[in-house]
Amino acid sequence: MSQDTDNQLLGVVLLVRHGDRQGFYQNPDTYTATATQITPLGNQQEFLLGSYLRSLYLNESSPSYIPGMSTGLFNPSQVYIQADFGDENGVIYDSCVSLTQGLWPATLSNNITLANGTMITAPLGGYQYIPIETVDPNLSIALEGFTNCNTFNTHTTAFYNSSIFKEMAAQSASFLDSLPPYLNGRSVQLENMWNIYDFMNVNDIHNATFAQALPPTYLAQVQTLANWHEYNVFSDQSIGGIGNIAGLAMLPSILNGFADITNSTNPVQLSITAISYKPFISFFNMTGVASANPSLAGIVNYAAAVALELRQPSEGGEPVIRFNFKNGSDADFVTYNFLNRTGDVPLSAFIDAMAPIAINTTAAWCSVCANNQDSGCAALALATEQGEAAARPKISPAGAGVLGAGLTLIVVALMGFTLAFFGVLTISRFGRRRSRHPGTFELKKDGESI
Question: CA-CA distance, 246 to 220, in Å (whole number)?
Fold first, then answer.
């Protein structure tokens, strides 16, 4: 489907990477991460991104203005924001705060008049405190599906043992062997490629002595290897394969964002999800953006952003999605084809491709990742065990026949109570809600908006 320049923007689902940070180490086998901190540069990168997004979507004179969106004071009924609070410690959340400062800057309109007639303006010239939902990977798998995922770890090990990996290791050995003077004792094995790149990139930005000593082509060569390494770890030949787990777990957030926009009674027109680089890799792989644009098959830059714009064609019909991407300091968004189509893609086509593979529940993640201990899986296992125990009454066969139906209801109720108690199960109709974690994506039926 070609792009319609006259169609109306209905809303936007944004995916945003954090800004510049200090050094960061990830276990090459499990991607367990160490803590780090955002830098003032990272804060500035996110603030500038937020300002750019404001000029694009919250500016009534912009052709991409989202109709009806508040352009001054933040309106919580129009926006949903969530940030990963696990990977890279608080860097992603802190980045998201800076992003919102650019989107909704301080304004003297952020005031209140007291009963005695005194007008009070919020601190810092009317600073707006924007609510951001933090997503802890210990409680929700939504933004870090790869964490504690045993089958993903197996996938990573298989990649390291593959022939293509061994070939690349042999081809790059001489170059990697030249890196120790610039790595402060870090391993130069290809398995450690992410940590090699990150150490050199961080120091090239923040250490003048290091930057001057580093040979001109080294960082670019290291980044090329790191892009190849990370893309193979966080992607898969199958759209629903375990290599895409970071994207599969994030899909419900994207689908919920579109459902919120098309909610005719209470539309939430702007959805923001702040994440690390990993879900970007999986999502670009799953949508075909990376295969069509090999330069995007790798680590996106700091403060990179995907804007999935939901638009209403001028000729009518169902809404369509436009895929825009801005790689960090790039001046503007660039529009990309995706899902092997040309131009804007019908919303139904996106849902048909993504909804069946989305990991909607903790139970599904526990099964896919072969985990019965972490991220709520232990509670699920306990509920199952209790349910099975309750289903084995010590009564006669005749009595069992009489009580069977009643006991089934008791088992279901007991399992539901246990899951709800541990926060693993939420029982509700899909709709606008402050928290989406834990929960599921559900397409509305019977004439309701998708």
Answer: 26
- Mapped onto helix, strand or coil, the DSSP state of residue 308 is strand
CB 104 within 8 A of CB 128: yes
Closest among 4, 3, 5 to 63, alpha carbons compared? 5
- pLDDT in tens for each of the 450 residues of the chain? 456 667 899 999 999 999 999 999 999 999 999 999 999 999 999 999 999 999 999 999 999 999 999 999 999 999 999 999 997 889 999 999 999 999 999 999 999 999 999 999 999 999 999 999 999 999 999 999 999 999 999 999 999 999 999 999 999 999 999 999 999 999 999 999 999 999 999 999 999 999 999 999 999 999 999 999 999 999 999 999 999 999 999 999 999 999 999 998 889 999 999 999 999 999 999 999 999 999 999 999 999 999 999 999 999 999 999 999 999 999 999 999 999 999 999 999 999 999 999 999 999 999 999 999 887 898 877 776 566 666 666 555 544 454 444 444 444 444 454 444 444 443 333 333 445 554 444 444 333 434
Give how far the C-alpha of residue 189 lies from the chain's centroid of Cα atoms, to the nearest Å: 29
The helix or strand, by DSSP H or E, that contains position 15, with its residue range, turns out to be strand 8-17
- Residue 70 phi/psi, 5-degree rounding, is -65, 130
Nearest 5°: the CA angle 252, 234, 40 is 85
* Beta bridge partner(s), residue 135: 84
In the numeric block, the tokens 């040309």 are attached to 342
Strand ranges inside 38-182, DSSP E: 79-84, 111-113, 119-121, 133-135
At residue 430's C-alpha, the angle toward residues 424 and 433, to 5°, is: 80
Burial class (CB in 10 A: 0-12, 13-18, 19+), 442: middle
Distance spanning both ends of the chain, measured CA to CA: 21
Give the helix ranges, DSSP H, for 190-288.
193-206, 208-213, 218-233, 245-261, 277-287
240 contacts 357 by C-beta, under 8 angstroms: yes
Backbone CA torsion sign across 142, 144, 145, 147:
negative
Nearest by Cα to 320 from 262, 249, 253: 262
